[in-house]
Design brief:
With 133 residues, the chain is mainly alpha-helical. 74% of the residues lie in helices and 3% in strands.
Length: 133
């Protein structure tokens, strides 16, 4: 009985984290990747079906597979995420030009997110071209 309750709680938490990750795609304050990694961990222990759905997703499945295998992200993914953080937070700060307190809060949150991203291990993907003659 306890195993079933734990399984369903992990599934609910995983779905909740997926929802937060999806919301994070459009909201600059909410980071997408950490929530999807948490969802992946929840589903790994509770639902092989949902776990595979995340790993096979065409938008972020490859990055999650890499994270699960080596706890790393590609240099390109890291660069794009950091660029997105800078652009979205800069736009948000510009929109709130009359509210210094909110601007400073956004600046702090953006800095924390950038520090988190900076610390993630990365791998460089080298593409090798083979010329067939």
């Amino acid at each position: 009985m306890r195993k079933r309750i734990k399984k369903y709680l992990l599934i609910i938490c995983g779905l909740f984290y997926v929802a937060l990750g999806i919301i994070g795609v459009v909201l600059p304050i909410l980071p997408t990747t950490p929530f999807l990694i948490l969802a992946l961990a929840c589903f790994a222990s509770s639902s092989p079906c949902f776990h595979q759905m995340l790993l096979n997703n065409r938008w972020f499945g490859k990055a999650l597979q890499q994270w699960e295998e080596s706890r790393t992200i590609t240099h390109t993914t890291k660069f794009k995420a950091m660029l997105l953080i800078v652009v979205t937070f800069a736009l948000s700060i510009a929109v709130l030009h009359k509210n210094l307190q909110l601007q400073l809060t956004l600046l702090l949150l953006g800095s924390i997110l950038l520090a988190f991203m900076w610390r993630l291990k990365e791998v460089r993907v080298i593409k090798i071209r083979v010329n067939d003659k």
